[in-house]
Amino acid sequence: MAESTESAQRAQYLSFSLGGAEYGVGILKVKEILQYEAITRVPSTPRSVRGVINLRGAVVPVIDLGVKFGLAETEVTRLTCILIVEALLEGQPTVVGVMADAVREVIELGFDDVEPPPSFGTQVRVDFLLGMGKVGKRFVLLLDLDRVISADEKEFAEAVRDGLPEAEAPAAEGAAGDAAAAAPEPAAEAPPAP
């Protein structure tokens, strides 16, 4: 009985690296992990919104957490990936992509393994953090994705969810003709060949 209570108090997080730090998001928020692909930039979006991708016919905004946290734009390498996550947008689940330098591992943390967010010393705003997870001798910054996604990004994600104007939506995979011609040019940032 004590074992089932202990496992009920444990939570899993997907850890990833970004700008030399290690972050974690609740595993239940992560829908899938994609190898980096070219992102279509959309004019007049918040700086932290890198653009959009076509995910099986759905337009998904991609957020660059490096920019969001006041760091440099995330550099694209062969390890760069996009985490497809679900964040709450005014109480409604919304799918967004989040860029990461690399995915690390799934970690399991108990209640005693999580410390309160530090009041100083991190590049991330304290209100973006659920806490700091202790994994062996290292710490993982646990993100509250619902808070990380700001009003500007939520507005853009809502516009995507409600349907971007045709001229701004990326062409569906395999579509030809007018739809492909109307889509903005993809950003010239394909990952280097391995």
From TrEMBL:
SMART domains: CheW. It holds the Pfam family CheW. The lineage of its organism: Bacteria, Pseudomonadati, Myxococcota, Myxococcia, Myxococcales. One of its GO terms (cellular component) is cytosol. It comes from Anaeromyxobacter dehalogenans (strain ATCC BAA-258 / DSM 21875 / 2CP-1). Residues 160-194 are annotated as: Disordered. Gene3D superfamilies: CheA-289, Domain 4, SH3 Domains. It comes from the Bacteria. This is CheW protein. Residues 166-188 have a biased composition (Low complexity). One of its GO terms (biological process) is signal transduction. InterPro entries: CheW (IPR039315), CheW-like_dom_sf (IPR036061), CheW-lke_dom (IPR002545). Residues 10-154 form the CheW-like domain.
